[in-house]
Amino acid sequence: MKILVADDHPLFRDALELSIRQAWPDAEVGCIGSLLELPVLPNSDDGAPVTVFRYDLIVLDWRMPGAEGSDPISVLRRLGVQGPVAVVTGAEDALTALEVLRCGAEAFLPKTTPRRILAQALRLVAEGGSFVPKCVALDLMQMTDLSLDIDEAEEEEGPSPEGEGATSSPLTDRERQVLSMLATGATNKEIGRHLSLQEVTVKLHTRRILRKLGARNRTDAVRRAQQAGLLSRILNEASP
Questions:
Q1: Residues 1-27: pLDDT tens digits?
Q2: Are strands 107-110 and 57-60 parallel, antiparallel or unpaired?
Q3: Which of 44-53, 134-143, 186-195 has the lowest mean pLDDT?
């Protein structure tokens, strides 16, 4: 059995390797701290790698060096690395889980997952299954707006709610970052590239910003944020 462990935090990577070796004593385990450590293979005429490295299990941190401007699973596939992927990450939110699963991972596991549960989940993935913690799965189920057409809903016109410029709840740090880029007129693709996010994640953040600001569309959201002084505070905080 061949297993690849990719995590840029040495202590966690060592602990993860130890757990894996205890679960699979006879496994061949390779560990890397950056995707840049993987060999770059020549491609065929159709762009596919000539050689393919197949693993029975790939345990992957989500924010990895060498995956800037893309997601780490896409980088692995471009480099010819194949096998079921279990993402073990410090993030625990449903948006990150959605991004991870949409990119092709079989499992989403926060680093706070108990060791025993982690071992069972990794074994399940290696055997062809998938895994998401119950709390994350419930959060995903509550995101009912995922069944809507996000692009149409973003631009939906209607009467402005009362409370001009007020937010129904505070913006998260990521939402503030997205809002600051919306103010520049950046597209979802440009925002995603700058913040290392998938476009669908940018859209979801934008939806939440619109809802919190009571805005009809992006332009209205920026206007409301300016009137409330929110945008100037965000830009001042971002300044060195």
A1: 999 999 999 999 999 999 999 999 999
A2: unpaired
A3: 44-53
Q: DSSP string covering 173-230, please?
A: HHHHHHHHHHTTT--HHHHHHHHT--HHHHHHHHHHHHHHHT-SSHHHHHHHHHHTTH
Q: What percent of the chain has pLDDT over 90?
A: 46
> Cα 52 to chain center, whole Å?
25
Please check whether residue 188 is in contact with residue 199, taking contact to mean a CB–CB distance below 8 angstroms: yes
Residue 83: HSE in the Cβ half-sphere, 13 Å Cα cutoff: 23
Say yes or no to pLDDT of 195 above 90: no
Residues 146 and 141: their CA atoms lie apart, in Å, by: 9
Check residue 51 and give its pLDDT.
Answer: 65
User: Side-chain half-sphere of 121: how many Cα atoms within 13 Å?
Assistant: 24
Pairing of strands 107-110, 85-89: parallel
Angle at which helix 94-102 crosses helix 134-142, to 10 degrees, equals 90
Per-residue model confidence as pLDDT tens digits over 207-217: 889 988 988 89
Q: What is the phi-psi region of residue 49: left when phi exceeds 0, alpha when psi lies from -120 to 50, beta otherwise?
A: beta
User: What are the extents of the domains in the chain?
Assistant: 2-140, 145-238
Question: What angle (nearest 5°) sits at the alpha carbon of residue 66, between those of residues 183 and 25?
Answer: 130
pLDDT at position 45: 57
Q: Which CATH architecture has domain 2-140?
A: 3-Layer(aba) Sandwich (3.40)
Fold of the CATH domain 145-238: Arc Repressor Mutant, subunit A (1.10.10)
Look up residue 221 and give its two tokens. 């959201």
